[in-house]
């Protein structure tokens, strides 16, 4: 049974309550909570830095691969789309030129009597060819460049033919050359 | 804003405030804080006996509320849960101040001869002042029982002492308050 003291407290309970805390409590609390949230993000990154780094590298690699493969495909499409007829001519001449180059390459270097620069120049994709190809890409409709490229193939073939003739003459077994020559006639 | 102790259990917070708090919504947590801060601050003030400790303890307690609100079950009493966290923090603050709660020999506490309560007037200010002047141990037990409505058994568990020690401490605390209030009446 409550005594006088306890009864007094029960009757006046609300009067024992004072005002609330000063605003500084919430301000400090809010600051603490914000720091905790930021801390959690930093902690998460710190904890998984290796995974984050690997993911970043993979993403960069994927982007690079996507860019370069896309770019290359675009270039190839561009070449065949620019001049389908030239593509045919190129296939034809390239096959013939490469066949003759193979025959020439079968001879020892000292037999040819050509230095490395001259031999490089004999190859299909020499500097002249690359320059013409680049020009054609930049000016796909330019007939002069197309004609120059075809002329380049023809001159290259003529040159290789002459070199081959000379080599064959020089190394021909007597009689064999004549026989072959006669057959050809 | 003045706290209403009797209506603490009926403190109304919007239905979804707790759910929003659980999702980390700071605005919802501010609403929760506003609903309970005054009542909880008054508990801290009664327990720690000074404004600075009371504010620091309240702040620490609400950090814990924020941290563990995800564990609060849907049907649990929000006010009782927050109050328990606040009270635990108050006890930690007292322990940091080297206030120890120890078992005492159970003795019957008799009202001092000559104290006739009918002859002096109880006032809120006089009782507040008397409680303020109590030793930490007495004041803690008296506050928890009389103002926070915890049972002797619950207080014993919180303080890590026996229930009989709690009862003895409470009786002694009441007697001490009576003496102080009587003294104030005499000197008036």
Number of strands of chain B: 0
Helix content of chain A: over 70%
Under the CATH scheme, which class of the largest domain in chain B?
Mainly Alpha
Taking all residues together, what is the mean pLDDT of chain B?
85
Count of alpha/pi helices of chain A? 9
Secondary-structure element order of chain A, N to C: HHHHHHHHH
- Counted up, domains of chain A total 2
- Which two chains touch over the largest interface? A-B, 28 and 36 residues
The main sheet of chain B comes to: none
Q: What would the principal axes of the Cα set say about the shape of chain B?
A: elongated
The average pLDDT score of chain A comes to: 74
Q: Given the structure, what is the number of helices of chain B?
A: 8
Separation, N- and C-terminal Cα atoms of chain A: 141 Å
What's the N-to-C terminus distance of chain B?
A: 32 Å
N-to-C order of helices and strands of chain B? HHHHHHHH
Describe the structure concisely.
The complex is a heterodimer of chains A (about 180) and B (about 190). Chain A has about 180 residues and is mainly α. In chain A, about 80% of the residues lie in helices and about 0% in strands.
Topology:
The complex is a heterodimer of chains A (185) and B (188).
Chain A lengths: L3 H8 L11 H25 L1 H34 L1 H22 L3 H4 L3 H7 L4 H12 L4 H29 L4 H9 L1
Helix pairs in contact in A: 4-8, 7-8
Chain B lengths: L16 H6 L3 H23 L2 H18 L9 H19 L27 H9 L3 H12 L4 H8 L3 H25 L1
Helix pairs in contact in B: 2-3, 2-4, 2-6, 3-4, 5-8, 6-8, 7-8
Describe the overall structure:
The complex is a heterodimer of chains A (185) and B (188). Chain A is 81% helix and 0% strand. Chain A has 185 residues and is mostly helical. In chain A, helix 7 runs antiparallel to helix 8. Chain B has 2 domains: 8-96, Rna Polymerase Sigma Factor, Chain: A; 117-187, Winged helix-like DNA-binding domain superfamily/Winged helix DNA-binding domain (Arc Repressor Mutant, subunit A, Orthogonal Bundle), CATH 1.10.10. In chain B, 64% of the residues lie in helices and 0% in strands. Chain B contains 8 helices and no strands. In chain B, helix 3 (51-68) crosses helix 4 (78-96) and helix 5 (124-132) crosses helix 8. The longest helix of chain B has 25 residues, at 163-187. The A-B interface holds A 3-6, 8-9, 12-22, 24-26, 28-30, 32-34, 36-37 and B 1-6, 24, 26, 29-30, 33, 37-39, 41-42, 45-46, 54-55, 58-59, 62-63, 66, 117-118, 122, 124, 127-128, 146-147, 174, 177-178.
């Amino acid at each position: 049974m409550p005594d006088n003291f306890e009864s007094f407290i029960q009757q006046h309970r609300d009067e024992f309550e004072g005002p609330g805390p000063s605003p500084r409590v919430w301000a400090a609390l809010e600051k603490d909570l914000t720091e905790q949230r930021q801390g959690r993000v930093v902690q998460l990154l710190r904890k998984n830095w290796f995974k984050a780094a690997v993911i970043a590298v993979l993403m960069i690699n994927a982007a690079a691969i996507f860019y370069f493969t896309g770019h290359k495909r675009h270039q190839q499409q561009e070449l065949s789309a620019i001049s389908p007829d030239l593509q045919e001519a190129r296939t034809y001449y390239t096959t013939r030129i490469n066949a003759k180059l193979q025959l020439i390459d079968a001879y020892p270097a000292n037999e040819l009597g050509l230095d490395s620069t001259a031999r490089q120049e004999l190859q299909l994709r020499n500097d002249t060819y690359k320059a013409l190809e680049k020009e054609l890409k930049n000016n796909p409709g330019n007939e002069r460049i197309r004609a120059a490229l075809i002329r380049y193939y023809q001159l290259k073939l003529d040159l290789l033919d002459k070199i081959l003739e000379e080599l064959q003459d020089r190394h021909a077994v007597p009689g064999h050359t004549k026989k072959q020559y006669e057959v050809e006639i | 804003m003045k706290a209403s102790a009797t209506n603490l259990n009926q403190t109304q917070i919007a239905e979804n405030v707790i759910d929003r708090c659980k999702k980390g919504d700071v605005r919802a947590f501010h609403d929760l804080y506003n609903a309970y801060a005054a009542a909880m601050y008054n508990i801290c003030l009664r327990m720690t006996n000074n404004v600075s400790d009371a504010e620091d303890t309240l702040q620490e307690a609400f950090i814990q509320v924020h941290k563990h609100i995800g564990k609060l079950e849907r049907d649990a009493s929000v006010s009782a849960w927050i109050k328990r966290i606040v009270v635990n923090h108050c006890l930690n603050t007292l322990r940091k101040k080297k206030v120890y709660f120890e078992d005492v020999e159970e003795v019957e506490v008799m009202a001092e001869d000559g104290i006739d309560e009918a002859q002096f007037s109880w006032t809120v200010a006089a009782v507040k002042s008397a409680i303020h002047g109590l030793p930490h141990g007495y004041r803690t037990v008296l506050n928890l029982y009389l103002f926070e409505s915890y049972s002797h058994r619950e207080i014993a568990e919180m303080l890590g002492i026996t229930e009989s020690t709690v009862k003895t401490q409470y009786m002694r605390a009441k007697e001490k308050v009576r003496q102080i209030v009587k003294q104030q009446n005499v000197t008036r």
